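ESCALATION

Customer reports they have been waiting on this structure for their group meeting. Please prioritize. Original submission:
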Amino acid sequence: MSNSSLLVGAVLLGACAVASAQTLSPDGYGDIRFGDRLDTAERRLVQRAAPPPVDPACSMVRFKKYPNVRFMVEEGRITRADASSIVRNSAGITSAMSVEQALRQQKSLRVEKHKYDENGQYLILEKGKQKALIFEAKNGKLTRMRAGVKPAVEYVETCG
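Update from on-call: job pushed to the front of the queue and completed.
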């Protein structure tokens, strides 16, 4: 095998590892764990959150490494992640699935009526009593998702 073949294989293997690490779960997303202090996550990622938290009680931040996800920071700790679409997740649910398909895929999902949308639903996958992965749906189609620790993950609204 040539050196260039080995290099291509190593690059592809690295890309697969990065992609699999960016999975939204009740525990975290990528290198961020819910409950981490923001400054600890910034050091681990070797980048600063933007914008910097304005309200210490609750702010939303982003990291360049994770452009499709916003993180809730409460009292200096990351408590939740919000994705405006369906991203790779620990439940194996994809944006191509309907609500019915998602329920078949993940039997532990609990369905609740959406707080603001009469055609909407929440599909909730709890991990113990303190964490959850929540999908939002409208007219039978999955639209967005969030994950984190309770009570933050249960808030319908975000902050900041």
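Sent to customer with the following note: The first helix runs from residue 3 to 21.
Escalation resolved.
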